[in-house]
TrEMBL record:
The organism of origin for this protein: Virgibacillus salarius
Full protein name: Heme ABC transporter
Keywords, alphabetical: Membrane, Transmembrane, Transmembrane helix
Transmembrane segments: 23-41, 47-67
Amino acid sequence: MDDRHQQGENIEVWEDLVNIKDLLLSIVICTISTLGGYLIAPNEPPKPLIFGLVGAVVGFIITSVVIKPKRRFRYMDEEED
C-alpha cells in the first residue's frame, strides 16, 4: 500500500495518525464492553460504576490484542567523524 493511499485512510488524533476503521472498531468494542458491564451490574450504588470500569478495561485489553500497531520505527546509526 503506497503512502498516499494510506494517508487517505488515516486521520490525525492528538498529533498522531490513526486508521479510521481501527478507531471505529475500538470505540465500538469499548462501548459494548463498558455498557455491558454497567447493565449486568446489581443495582446497589457502587457496583454499576465498578462493573462499568472493569468493562472499559476489558474493552481496552480486547482492542489492544485485536488491533496491532502499524507504526514502523527505523533506527539509523549515525557514524561519528
